[in-house]
Amino acid sequence: MTTNDEAKAYLESYTRFAQDLRLWLTGYGIGGPALFVTQPFVSEKIADAWQSVWIVSLFLAGVFLQVFYVKLHKWSQWQLYHQKNDFAGNPSPPISRGAKCPSKSQEATFQRADWVSRQYWIDNVIDWGSVALYAGATIWLVFILTERPPPT
After folding, report:
1. 93 Cβ partners below 8 Å, 6+ apart?
2. On the chain, which terminus has fewer CB atoms closer than 10 Å, C or N?
3. How far apart are CA 55 and CA 41, in angstroms?
4. pLDDT band at 149, cuts 50/70/90?
C-alpha cells in the first residue's frame, strides 16, 4: 500500500467516524427533548422542575452547534468545489453562469473556505461543546428523575 493509499484509507475512516459521531450527537440532542414529550412519567417530573427550560435549552443548543458545523462545512466545501470546477477550465454548473475568472472577493472567499476546511480544531470545539451541553442536561435530568438534589 502506498503512502497516498494509506492517507486515503485514513481519510475514509475519519469520514465514517465523523459522520457517525455527528449523527449520534444530533440524535441524542433531539432524542432528549423527545423523551420528555413521549414519556408521561418523565414529562410530569420535568414540568415540575425549575430546571426544565435549561435542560431543553442545553439539548437544543447542542443540536444547534451540530447544525452550525454542518452548514459551515457545507459552505466551505461548496466554495472549494466552485473554485476547482469553475476556474480550472471545467464546465461550469448553471448556478455560476459560466464565470471563468475569479474576482478578488471570490478569491478571498475561496481562501476563507480553504482555511475553514483545514481547521480540525473547529470539529473538536463543536463536538466537545455538544457533549458538554448534553452532559449538563443529562445530569440535571438524572437528578430530577431520581429526586435527588444536585451537589452544591
Report:
1. 85, 86
2. C
3. 16
4. low
Residue written as grid cell 413521549? 38
Residue with cell 451540530: 66
**In the structure grid, which three cell numbers stand for residue 8, read together?**
486515503
pTM for this structure? 0.78
How many angstroms separate the Cα of 68 from the Cα of each of 26, 37, 63, 130? 11, 25, 9, 11
| 79 in Cβ contact with 93 (< 8 Å) | no
pLDDT score recorded for residue 102: 66
Q: SS3 for 91?
A: coil
For residue 152, name the pLDDT band (cuts at 50, 70, 90).
low
**Residues 65-78: what's their mean pLDDT?**
93
